[in-house]
Amino acid sequence: MAADLTPLEELLGRLSPPASAPACVLLSVHATEGSVPRNAGAWMAVWADGSLTGTVGGGQLEFEGTAWARGWLAEPTRPPEVRRFPLGPSLGQCCGGVVVLRAEAVQVAGPQDTEALARRLSAHHLPVALFGGGHVGRALARALAPLPFALRWIDSRDEVFPPELPARVHTEHSDPVHAAVPHLPPGSHVLVMSFSHAEDLDIIDACLQRQARHQDLPFVGLIGSRTKWASFRQRLLARGHTEEALQGITSPIGLPGIVGKEPEVIAASVAAQLLLATQTLRQAGTANPI
Q1: Of residues 216, 164, 160, 156, the one with CA closest to residue 192
Q2: Cis peptide leading into 252, omega within 30 of 0?
Q3: I need a labelling partner for 109 at 20 to 30 A (CA). Which of 14, 18, 67, 248 fits?
Q4: Do 44 and 57 belong to one domain?
Q5: Strand partners of residue 99
Q6: pLDDT tens digits in sequence order for the chain, 290 residues long
């Protein structure tokens, strides 16, 4: 993969309208049983020059799957197919589960095709709303970009976002910033770290109001110290929120025990916390797999 590019960015960057052959073959995990290296939705592009983008799990599974997928490079009109791969003695892998792979030719006629493909391959990514374009916000956006999250990055200030952004990071200017909360996708994980404590308070207030109506924000996290949260707690109670509702706010954010205050350390800690929160939702059956 090219430096600093996610697999999806590399795939989209290499696609161009082909003359008569498919641009690449897309091999994706269609379904799984038991213990497997990747979940449904994982994918890999097989290119005519022999290179690969992404992964469906590596090892003999990927080797056999790649060999099977190459047939579509010579047959542009061959319809998609699925094939079952038991991860046992026949593949020399001891996972013990089963992976069902789907192979299909990818041909693009224009930007609308690449946009549709991007939406399809990102459909299982968990929505995350990040409020704040400061140092920690930038570090966190970089940390989340290669992970299976669809990031909506929001700030009230103009021209605060860097000019080049990963494909799964979408920026939004909102003034007032908390006005963006009602429009977040259901199931969004919310991270609050704006440049202003007043903005942070308004964002948390808006999240609590939304939760009171819909209960569709499974994680709302606020950056800052316990002292900051104690102050916010009193102000939010004064605004009419209940103690029970405030239990739904995580503050400080990040995994306990990681004490570094460098933006990159905080970002790594929060990214890991989001992955753990998502795993909990998956086990409860309330989130798409990532």
Answers
A1: 156
A2: yes
A3: 67
A4: yes
A5: 32, 85
A6: 344 678 888 888 888 765 556 789 999 999 999 888 888 889 999 998 889 999 998 888 999 999 999 888 888 789 999 999 998 766 656 666 899 999 999 988 788 888 888 888 887 788 999 999 999 999 999 999 888 899 999 999 988 998 888 767 899 999 999 999 999 999 999 999 999 999 999 999 999 999 999 999 999 999 999 999 999 999 999 999 999 999 999 999 999 889 888 999 999 999 999 999 887 766 666 544 43
pTM for this entry: 0.78
**In this structure, is residue 3 part of a structural domain?**
no
For 244, the enclosing helix (H) or strand (E) is helix 243-246
Domain residue limits at 97: 12-121
Domain end residue (candidates: 89, 105, 121): 121
Residue 149 falls inside a structural domain? yes
| Total of domains in the chain | 2
Residue 163 near residue 223 (C-beta atoms within 8 A): no
